[in-house]
Amino acid sequence: MVIFSRPQPGTLPTTLKLLVAILIPSALVSILAGVSASMGFGLAMGLGMAVTPVSRPRQAVVLVTLGAALGGLASLAGSTPWAIALLMFVSAILFAAANQRSAGLLSLTPVMVILFGPGPIDLSWWSAILWILAGGLVGAFITRLLKFQAPTLPVEKRVAWEHGIAVGLLCAAIMFWTLANNVPHGYWIAVTVLMALRPLPNQRRETLNGRLIGTALGAVIALLAVVFLPVWGAGIVAVACLFFLVWYSMGGAYLMQALALTPMLLIFASLGDVDRGFELTIERVIFTVMGIIVAVLIALLLRHWESRREATPG
Fold first, then answer.
1. What is the pTM assigned to this prediction?
2. What is the 3 state secondary structure string of the chain?
3. Interatomic CA distance for residues 26 and 39, integer angstroms
4. What confidence score (pLDDT) does residue 4 get?
5. How many Cα neighbours within 13 Å face the side chain of 200?
6. For the chain: N or C, fewer Cβ within 10 A?
7. CA-CA distance, 287 to 277, in Å (whole number)?
8. Which residues lie below 8 Å from residue 235, measured CB to CB, with a gap of 6+?
9. In this predicted model, what pLDDT tens digit does every residue of 218-236 receive, in sequence order?
10. Are 238 and 23 in contact (CB under 8 A)?
């Protein structure tokens, strides 16, 4: 696997347009309604951008509405272990059903359950629903405006269900354990599993390796920026990481996306606080390693099932 790679040629102009299209409405929402609303709105824009290129308008509306319902229920559940665990499993089942249309179509919905529930997004259930619907609509509009296109990658029915059920049970158990035991930021374990364990078997090795290596290298960048740079300098690094994250999301290697995402999140979360920077960096690396370990075990189990199925006649 190549450690460092270049973004796809010709994607820089689109990246700049996309950054402007994302940052302006997000900044407006932040000014008008606060950081939590802006985070929820931005996450929902990502959902709208994910479903629109491979869905008809009515299908896209249904998918965004499902995301809004899950986000609202997660906000209502808060940090209640059994409720979040149940929502994690339900979202994974919906994810499995959508993967038969195109892999990763609803990959953000389990993450939304985490971030709107025990995560950093603090909104009432009704405002969560409204901001998700608004963000999904804006994301769909941006996708149409910039004429984004994406091929459908359907997942075979049995593979999709096996993946969805395994991930749903695992992430439900992880979230129940972290919330019942008050593990700070323990939800990063589940997020790692959700983002790295892809439904298509031929993508799993690259994403698992990329998540682990990218997170480790990104954590080093974040730590160096927080410790040795002034606040404004660390902020510039975080903004640069956001730029590279969007640029590499245009088809670049997953490792590079993880490498940009990790310092961006850690720097913004600990800007001006060195001790918190150390704490978050250590937690991020530990929980990512834990998530990768359990994801690899599940990937091996899924591969075993696939091998047995292929070896069985008829």
1. 0.90
2. CCCCCCCCCCCHHHHHHHHHHHHHHHHHHHHHHCHHHHHHHHHHHHHHHHHHHHCCHHHHHHHHHHHHHHHHHHHHHCCCHHHHHHHHHHHHHHHHHHHCCCCCCCCHHHHHHHHHCCCCCCCCHHHHHHHHHHHHHHHHHHHHHCCCCCCCCCCCHHHHHHHHHHHHHHHHHHHHHHHHCCCCCCHHHHHHHHHHCCCCHHHHHHHHHHHHHHHHHHHHHHHHHHHHCCHHHHHHHHHHHHHHHHHHCCCCCHHHHHHHHHHHHHHHHHCCCHHHHHHHHHHHHHHHHHHHHHHHHHHHHHHHHHHHHHHCCC
3. 8
4. 64
5. 16
6. C
7. 15
8. 267, 271
9. 988 998 988 888 988 988 9
10. no
Distance between CA 240 and CA 248 in Å, rounded? 12
284 Cβ partners below 8 Å, 6+ apart?
185, 188, 215, 219, 262, 265, 266
User: Measuring CA to CA, which residue among 176, 278, 180, 144 is closest to residue 220?
Assistant: 278
Parts of the chain with a pLDDT under 50: none
Place of tokens 């270049």: 6
| Type of residue at 57 | P
Report CA-CA distances (Å) from 199 to 3, 50, 80, 98, 106. 23, 16, 28, 11, 11
Q: What angle do CA 145, 150, 151 make, to 5 degrees?
A: 150
Look at the block and give the residue holding tokens 């075990």.
297
Amino acid at the residue 9? P
> Is residue 286 exposed (0-12), middle (13-18) or buried (19+ Cβ within 10 Å)?
middle
Amino acid at 217: L
Residues 87 and 74: beta-carbon distance below 8 Å: yes
Q: Which residues contact 191 (CB under 8 A, 6 or more apart)?
A: 111, 114, 291
Q: What is the pLDDT of residues 246-285, one digit of tens each?
A: 888 876 678 888 888 889 888 888 777 788 888 888 888 8
